[in-house]
Specification:
This protein has about 260 residues and is of the alpha+beta class. The chain contains nine helices and 13 strands. It has helices spanning about 55-65, 85-90, 100-105, 115, 120-125, 135, 155, 180-190, 225-240; strands at about 10, 10-15, 25-35, 45-50, 70-75, 80, 145-150, 160-165, 170, 175-180, 195-200, 215-220, 245-250. It has a four-stranded antiparallel sheet, with no helix packed on it. A three-stranded antiparallel sheet has the order 2-3-8. A hairpin with a 5-residue loop joins strand 5 (about 70-75) and strand 6. The two termini are about 40 Å apart. The model has no long low-confidence stretch (mean pLDDT about 95).
């Protein structure tokens, strides 16, 4: 049985932009393979995966601390890693912890400083050699899994799962940033590249009514349309007679 500790290694089979060219917010339809997994998800469920950090950001950090990436280090939970592998798969590089700032600078961080910096910004400002690999690893926050609602009914699409992924982009400290999970799903994973570790997160209470004659109202502001796409596919498969009303919001009708 696949789990968070033992995920199914999937691949992206299809990726289609749902936004027009030049849109200030981009959303992608992503289809992933589940063949042979025996994962029987239901509408309303989610999938999680542990993303990888951008390799160019990892290289900058390795250079800053004078490391090759092969050094053995220990994270804050006591787990042992090769330093480069830890930066790529185990560490949150988008945040500077209060403990790290205090340990290096010797005082509390100014208001708003930590929220606007990634780890590389902080190391760049401190200068080369401010920290060694073994010291830095114990202060880094863990890289947490990202979760996405299923946007498909398994009865409708078979051994696949669909996601509707907002491509997260923002600016801080005068630098353009990208969401770690969405960057991987929307851009970095090649089609057919089998390196996407997925695990099922079952829903508790967020379910479709079993009464196929009942009308349903679905409200998904922002990118909340994904699970309701799954609901509608399920209703089609079941031949539901009840009416289905979907309300969702986006920025611009013409672009999104």
């Amino acid at each position: 049985m696949y789990s968070k500790e033992n995920p199914f290694i999937s691949q992206v089979l299809e990726r289609v932009s749902l936004s027009s060219e030049g849109a200030d917010k981009k959303t992608y339809h992503v289809v992933c393979d589940l063949e042979g997994s025996m994962i029987d998800y239901e509408v309303g469920d989610s999938f999680g995966f542990f993303p990888e950090n951008a390799e160019e950001e990892v290289e900058k950090i390795l250079e800053s601390v004078g490391a090759r990436g092969l050094e053995e280090v220990e994270d804050r939970r006591g787990n042992r890693w090769q330093f480069g592998e830890f930066l790529l798969k185990g560490a949150n590089l988008a945040e500077v912890s209060k403990r790290l700032y205090l340990a290096v600078v010797g005082e509390e961080a100014p208001e708003g400083y930590l929220k606007s910096r990634h780890l590389w910004d902080f190391l760049e400002e401190r200068g080369p050699g401010s920290l060694k690999a073994g010291d830095l690893s114990k202060f880094l926050l863990p890289l947490l899994p990202r979760f996405y609602s299923v946007a498909s009914s398994r009865a409708f699409v078979g051994e696949r799962v669909h996601f509707t992924v907002a491509d997260v982009e923002y600016e801080s400290n005068e630098k353009r940033r990208h969401g770690v999970g969405s960057l991987q799903l929307c851009h970095r994973l090649g089609i057919g590249e089998k390196r996407l570790p997925l695990f099922l997160q079952s829903s508790h209470g967020f379910k479709l009514t079993e009464d196929d004659n009942a009308p349903i109202i679905m409200v998904g502001p922002g990118t909340g349309v994904a699970p309701f796409r799954a609901f509608m596919q399920e209703r089609i498969v079941r031949g539901a007679k009840g009416k289905s009303w979907l309300f969702f919001g986006e920025r611009y009708r013409e672009q999104n």
